[in-house]
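subagent[fold] <- orchestrator: predict structure for attached chain, return tokens only, no commentary.
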Amino acid sequence: MCKILFSFILFISFVFNIRAQAVPESENNLNDSITTVSIEEVVITGTLTTRTLKNTPVLTKVISSNDIRESGATTVLEVLENFVPGVNFTPNPMGDNIQIAGLDNKYILILLDGERLVNERTENVNFSRLNTFDIKQIEIINGASSVLYGSNAIGAVINIITKEVTQAVQGSVRGRYSKYNSYVGDASLGLKMNKLSSKTVFTAKNSDGYTLKSHTMDPYSDYTLSQVFKYKFNAQWDAELKGTYYNNETWFLHKYQTRIDEDYTLGGKVQYTFSKDNVLTFSGNNDKYEGHLIYKLRNDSSTYANGSQYTVFRLTDAWNITENIQFVSGAEMNLENTFSYNQFGFDPEERNASNWNLFTQGEFKTESGLDALVGVRYTRHSQFGGYLSPKISLIYRLENFRFRGNISNGYKAPTLKELYMNFPHKIGEDIPFWVIGNKDLIPEESWYKAISAEYISNNINMSVTIHDNSIQNKINTNQVWNETQGRMEMKYENVENAQITGVDVALQWTFWKRFQLKAGYSFADARDKDSGWQLSGNSKHTGTLNLVYKQRHLPFLSSIECPYSLSLLGRAMSPRLFYSTSESGEITDESTGSYYISSFVYTQQFPVYKKLSGDIQFGINNLFNYINKDYISNNTGRTCFVSLGIKF
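subagent[fold] -> orchestrator:
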């Protein structure tokens, strides 16, 4: 039986598949035809309590592990671009540079299992740290969410939720190979013994790098090792301890340097259940990211170049006062520090900041179908004093329709680099300008307003959202000539008031039992209110399309249950504008072209022995070999990949 199957598949090629574990879908979704839309999925990000997707007051976008597996994505960047219109990446030597509706990294909060990931040297999160094969689902909330998540949650919150151990013994081994000698390998082992569970995940990646037009990807090698222990003492007490180590080595061939990045994460929580209606949780998490430079040749003298650290302690109480009234309240302390060898002057220096917070959010349900979510957070920042962030969300349920409204306030304190930067920007031996911080900066503030209508049935889920995000005191760099120092400076200042107005449309449709269509469109008019210009990097129109066909049996082999799927993915984007300033202070703009990129992925499962099963996958990314211009360089041209995996 297996020999026939392999000969059929090897004619196409090979790859591996990630384990389907999206909640509440089945463990192996390919075994079943698609008959319903996934509206019963459980989400947590918008309320900090579990809610079904169709009933959460905060409109939430969910990307399941099935979606990730069938798309063939190996990075979170690929996942977001495949399924979320409005998300753009502009990779360069300074990082991944995510944007949503014209707002960049520092306005988008990235969480892993609800905990903030520390930004590295350029205020980006290194997405290479994250293992897509261990993701249960990704939840995305647009707009301000400062009531629950504090500073930075102005543009969006992206919460990456990892899988849990559900069986006595479970695990997988996978490997993937593609162009430029690029490979990804991962292995996981989960154990569940009475009151104790353990999950160990290891991932390794490697690439020889490439050069396409003006974009260069330097050769790199990295690996991640993570461990989670959970222990249930009794009916009331639960505890969790987790840690992750990440190591990346990149060879900068044009600089004769090697860069080694390391990340250490250690966290834990203790949970006490007073009753089924009242749960108290204390948690702590520390994320530390470090970068080292090794000069000339590998193993030469190294320099500790930069480091960032974010530590949070949180006490949260979730209390269902009655069936119709629930509250989530808490207290939080955040500590951050950053070190740089040269960004704060010619001498190495460390900078620090802290804030403590009190927050509460109540959900009030009525018999009429109208529910309200009301919350407020008080933040006390070490540099900027106190700030109050309110929020109100409404949902009205009328048969198959859901109507939502939201008004929320966002708050973002200036970063340590925006406050204290003193960096000579070198090009060769010349210093054309300096990047200068500003201790007189004030926090940025936003007001996010949105209304949405959603239609839900067994086969169709469609939503339309109209939103407006107004940001005051937006921090940007302003080019000035410093007469005293005799130099050109790019100085951080509160120089912008921005407004992002847009419409988002999402459609999920299952038809003919075997087909599923997921499509999205986003329009975003993101402008500086004073100049009227579009925010740099914004694309007004973006769209995504994912069509999946699933079947339980191979053609002509109906007696053998070997589920497979065929996926066609597409992404379209209108032109993006980027601005640059000459030495004379003249501002010029450059427009990238519009483009469309599509991919094809074939995923096949096959039985091995008893509970042991395998996955193979073949894919072609960028079918029409579109090569991006400057500023849009996240693809490597047409790329074929193959992978193979075994799970138990």
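orchestrator: received. Logging for downstream: The helical segments are 2-10, 65-71, 76-83, 146-149, 416-420. DSSP finds five helices and 37 strands in the chain.
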